[in-house]
Structure of DUF3846 domain-containing protein:
Amino acid sequence: MRALRIAPDTTLTELTLSEADALSVIRQHVGTSGAVDQAVYHHRALLHVHGEGQVIGLDQNVAAWALASAWRGMPLYPLHGPVVITGRTPDGEAAALDDDLAEHARTVTQTVRETLKAWKARPPASNEAAVSELLAYAARDVASGR
């Protein structure tokens, strides 16, 4: 099963998961032996996140947050730690990630990486301006299907 992992540092890794042990491998990739929460921000995708990521102080995952927010069409709560993205069956089970959604993830992650780098030289005026800028870029990337 095809999946992607987005790390808090905006590193994107392609994964191939076997259906037999997908959950245990996803646990390893999000960094937990315990709970993995599954969130639906797009009807054909699942985001698998650390169940205690914010509580234990994992870094915010801005790229995964921007992607999820663009898919939902609104700013969401922060995501913490590595995130694994899989496809989703009509029954809500994990499945192979579709090409178009994988491309959304790649493009948004790259855009976030480039934007964060640019902000080192030209910081945004405020947190609100930063959120607005990232959401506008992510929405553009998802809408263009790049």
Summary: The chain has a mean pLDDT of 93. The beta strands are 2-6, 12-16, 36-42, 45-50, 83-88, 94-95.
